[in-house]
Structure formats: structure tokens, C-alpha cells
Amino acid sequence: MRIAILGAGQMARALGAGWSAAGHDLAIGARNPQQANDTAAHIGGTAYATTIPEAAAFGEAVLLALPVPALSAVLRAAAPHLANRTLIDCTNAYSPDSFAPGSPGFTLTESAVAERIAATAPDAYVVKAFNLCAAEVWSSPTRDFDGRPLAVPLCGDDPAALDTVASLAEDLKLRPIRAGGLAQTRYLEATSAFIVGLWFSGHDARAAFPPLEAAFAVPDGD
Ligand SMILES: NC(=O)c1ccc[n+]([C@@H]2O[C@H](COP(=O)([O-])OP(=O)(O)OC[C@H]3O[C@@H](n4cnc5c(N)ncnc54)[C@H](OP(=O)(O)O)[C@@H]3O)[C@@H](O)[C@H]2O)c1
């Protein structure tokens, strides 16, 4: 598949390298040509560096690997090319985008980024994914923790776009979980702020969650 990544930082490198290794063709669109070149070289395979609009035109799926404040301008530049594309949103609107020791955790500058993206690019099919874990986790070969495979919640309204992102998650040896529609993305975003805050405070977030069979919930077979 042809994948565009808009942004050439940590998430572009982590996810892009995995998709390239799985045989996908990538275009890295960034405002800084040197950074785009370096990231394309890091990703390897057929990955090449280009501008943001040209990358958007290339991608059947487009990953937004950008800080939230950059989204409006980048989406405006890419908008003519986004119709009918799977638009993957991995962003987190942390404020600030760093953790202050002793602080109660992360807060968000806005509560529904993926919904705003969908409103800004109404002809694209937005899927929120990959926002919960750090880039280092996505690029690590470790995919199993205490016998529990690492999963990626996916939220979006379009079934075909969800299928595409599920397949891209599987290419990274991750287990996709279809976790609801676009209306659920704001909760996935809030979950990130809360859980990452726990991790940065030194707590094992998973310790707060029993396995499914002990959670008094109905297994869905996903
Ligand atoms: N890193 C993680 O562990 C992680 C995990 C989950 C989710 N996320 C989310 O993923 C997104 C990307 O994070 P990242 O860590 O990859 O960020 P990053 O390493 O800082 O890279 C961000 C990229 O966006 C570009 N950019 C910034 N402002 C721009 C603008 N106004 N116009 C065009 N390009 C712009 C940067 O280019 P310049 O260098 O030119 O500014 C850079 O190429 C963020 O929303 C973050 O919250 C990150």
C-alpha cells in the first residue's frame, strides 16, 4: 500500500520503519526537507522525502504525525488530496507536551482532536490509533507482555478505513481492537492523557486493570 506520513519526527520514524519493513511504499512529507530526507533514510525501503501536499497526494493511507497545533495549517495544505483517503490520527493534545515531576499528570488543550480533523477533512475517513504508547514502544520488537499481546485500539466510522488500519497494525505485529466510532475518539484521547500521566508518575497503569476474564464484562471475541 502507498502510505504518506505528514511530519518527520519520532512517530513518523517508528511507524514508518515498521510499515516499510512490511513492504509498504512510503512518502514522508515535512516542511523541513533535510528532516524529511533523514527520516526517509531512517525508514529505508522505498521511502522518499517530499513536501506535505505531495505526500498527501501519494498516500492511500495518510498518517498525521504532527503536533496538534500544526494540524489546521497542514490539513489546509493537504486537503485537496485527502478525499476518500484513510486518515490516521495518532496525535495527543498534551499541554504541555512534557511531564513536570510532581504534577498531577497531563492535561489536554482540546478534548476532541480527531473529531476536529474529521470536520476539517470531511471527505477523508479518520481513524484514531497509535496514540496510547510511546514511539519507542511502536518501534520495539517486543509485542508480548506477560503473555498478553500488545493491542491498538482503533476508533473511526468507516469500516473500510478501520480494516485498512487494522491491517497496518497487524503489519507491526500488533493486535487491533475495534473500539468504536469517531464519537469514541475523544475518550481514547482522554485515556492517553490519564494513562501516560500514570506511567510518568511511576505507576504501572496495567496493574489497575484485571484480565478480561476477571473483569465481570462480556468477552466480545475480538
Ligand atoms: N513521540 C511519541 O512517543 C508519541 C506517542 C504517541 C503519540 N504521539 C503524538 O504524535 C504526534 C507526533 O509526535 P512526534 O513525537 O512524532 O513529534 P516530533 O518528533 O516533534 O515530530 C513532529 C513533526 O511535525 C513537524 N511539525 C511541527 N510543527 C509543524 C507545522 N506547523 N507544520 C508542519 N510540520 C510541523 C515537525 O517538523 P519541524 O521539526 O520542522 O517542527 C516534525 O517533523 C504528536 O501529536 C504526539 O502527541 C507521540
Automatic annotation (TrEMBL):
SUPFAM superfamilies in UniProt = NAD(P)-binding Rossmann-fold domains
What does the UniProt keyword field contain? Oxidoreductase
Coiled-coil intervals in this record?
Answer: none
On the tree of life, the source organism's domain of life is: Bacteria
Q: Which residues form the Pyrroline-5-carboxylate reductase catalytic N-terminal domain?
A: 2-92
Among InterPro entries, the record links this protein to: NAD(P)-bd_dom_sf (IPR036291), P5C_Rdtase_cat_N (IPR028939), STEAP_metalloreductase (IPR051267)
Q: Which Pfam families match?
A: F420_oxidored (PF03807)
Task: Kindly provide the name given to this protein in its UniProt entry.
Answer: NAD(P)-binding domain-containing protein
